[in-house]
Amino acid sequence: MTTQNDKFVSIEGIARRYPKAGGGTTTVFEDLWFSMRKGEFACIIGHSGCGKTTVLNILNGLDAPDDGAAIVDGKAIEGPSLDRAVIFQGHSLLPWRTVLGNVSYAVAARHRDWPKAKVNAHAMAFIEKVGLKGSELKKPSELSGGMKQRVGIARALSIEPKMMLMDEPFSALDALTRGTLQDEVRRICLETGQTAFMITHDVDEAIYLADRIVLMTNGPNAMIAEIVENPLPRDRKRTEVHHHPGYYAIRNHLIDFLVVRSKTFKDAVPDGYDRRHPPVVRPGADTTPEPAGRAAA
Amino acid sequence: MTTSLNLRAIVLSLAILFVFLSGWHIAVQSGGGGPAANIDPEYAKLLGQQVTQGKSAMPGPLDVGKTLWGHLANPFYDKGPNDKGLGVQLAYSLGRVLLGYLLAVLVAIPLGFLIGMSPLISKALDPFIQVLKPISPLAWMPLALYTIKDSGISAIFVIFICSVWPMLLNTAFGVSAVRKEWLNVARTLEVGPVRRAFTIILPAAAPTILTGMRISIGIAWLVIVAAEMLVGGTGIGYFVWNEWNNLSITNVIVAIFVIGVMGMVLDQTLARFQRAVTYPD
Fold first, then answer.
1. N or C: which end of chain B has fewer CB within 10 A?
2. pTM higher than 0.80, yes or no?
3. What ipTM describes this predicted complex?
């Protein structure tokens, strides 16, 4: 049972190839291995074109791998499923429906036999959870960008999925709104023990939210360079994260990767690199072992 | 600011109307070259007032107004095939337009959905649509009369064939242009294809579909007048042609005016529906 929980999400040797314009194929990535524990929050970082979104689309079932398989909760992914909710990069709300209409659309898809009143009550509970009570009858066009993304979060949560998939959900928001929404996503994920997988370009976002950060090298033929374990205590606060002694170690490690190693990693793959078990690193861990970090926070 | 703009626009409209009506009135009064004195009285009877007394056959706005009022006061009388109230004639035309138009809706919207959703069907049907679309609807009339053998139904068929194209093309375009992200939302929620068509594609494409429907009703109303002139019997188009044969220019002008007003009503009705389904993005 522990293996089941250790590998709640398991990406096993997946590959994705596209036919090239002039014949031949472009391999976005191949033989990619990665797994997540239940309740874990993972972020994936890499430059545009490295196939992050493809990995996410394979996890949500909109895309399928050419080789290998992605397994969630012991079942191979075969197409989209209500077990895996997606928060899209654009909010992608249905503009002709109200806030309540958008959330209840998802609830009604999940619970087809529920009467309308029950669907609406369930949807309202999640609208309240993201702090949009009172705006439920507004159309998306009447909401600010942050509020729209809150509706997207409420919609994803309302179907009570086994895991949440997020494709740069906050990249279009201003810094202040992004911060509040990060707090909320983190709070909700911790409260509900939600397993979450998020694509981001924002190093600080990854450090604040993720338990583990997957570093992907540049595409094509992208690979997972390493998996970074977050040394910061689990009960970190967004406002205090940057005071943590381990913060700059992990931040510099991530930025070094994005600036230099994402390009060069492939040319000088370290000895003993195993695609099945990419190296796990814990920058800053030696300066602050976890118990000490927890005491400091 | 807007009120004053609206107010000024109304005043200007009324001024233009006044100038037009008085110009019309004066032009008609001064028409003709005075009474023709040296004319055989028998011949004069045949020729009528406009020649003998120099009165123009073109009625003035007051004559038209009076006749229009007469029609409006009693729109639904029926005194045989050549003398029916304007309301009765309008009702015949409207009936044909709505019937043909409704048939076109029933064909164009599902077919448009199919074309919009399937690139294969879209490509396969494209040459047919390209050839059929530019054909004047009236060109179908002889063929319709020959095959259907009923002038009333032929007119309805002509309305059908002219209203089908804008709706078909707009529906196909609207359906094919539905944003991928909305479709992906439905897919990740495991919404089935039929439900997806009604809950995502239909509302997303509705404004475009309604635009096509609005263009179609306009074309149908243009075509019905010509079609009824050809098939005869009843309808506002037949009325115009009949009054032309009666040399009653007054009634022709009244009919033209009524056709215009009715067309506006149809267009505005569709415009209202269009506003109802339009969503701000």
1. N
2. yes
3. 0.83
